[in-house]
């Protein structure tokens, strides 16, 4: 069966990052941690690959030097059930030195870009008329961490 997964390339932090993400996002788990075999560049016995799931989606993190680095050109999107979950995931992803960005984006301490969004956002962007969607987008553009109630209020404003 064909399967799509995301691979994140780190210098030495693959396991630390995977464990951080699994702790932050519900329905996530560490799979296998594979150590570097003889003959592979790097310290023999150090962590080479980590398989894990985030919200049920398969992921892979590996250590290889030098990593190419992460950019905002690719981000991972976490769709949160409610504001409490969004707040918890947002705060967890910022632990240890993450940086906030506009419109629900952040960069975690490992340099990976994330969008932490309420489940309501895609629904609001597809529903209603152009004016309602425009108000949602205007509200969104003023936010750092997204506020689901404020987005809903913008949609329903007259």
Automatic annotation (TrEMBL):
InterPro entries: 3_dmu_93_MTrfase (IPR009725), Glyas_Bleomycin-R_OHBP_Dase (IPR029068), PhnB-like (IPR028973). Residues 4-117 form the PhnB-like domain. This is VOC family protein. It comes from Roseomonas alba. Pfam families: 3-dmu-9_3-mt. CDD domains: PhnB_like. SUPFAM superfamilies: Glyoxalase/Bleomycin resistance protein/Dihydroxybiphenyl dioxygenase.
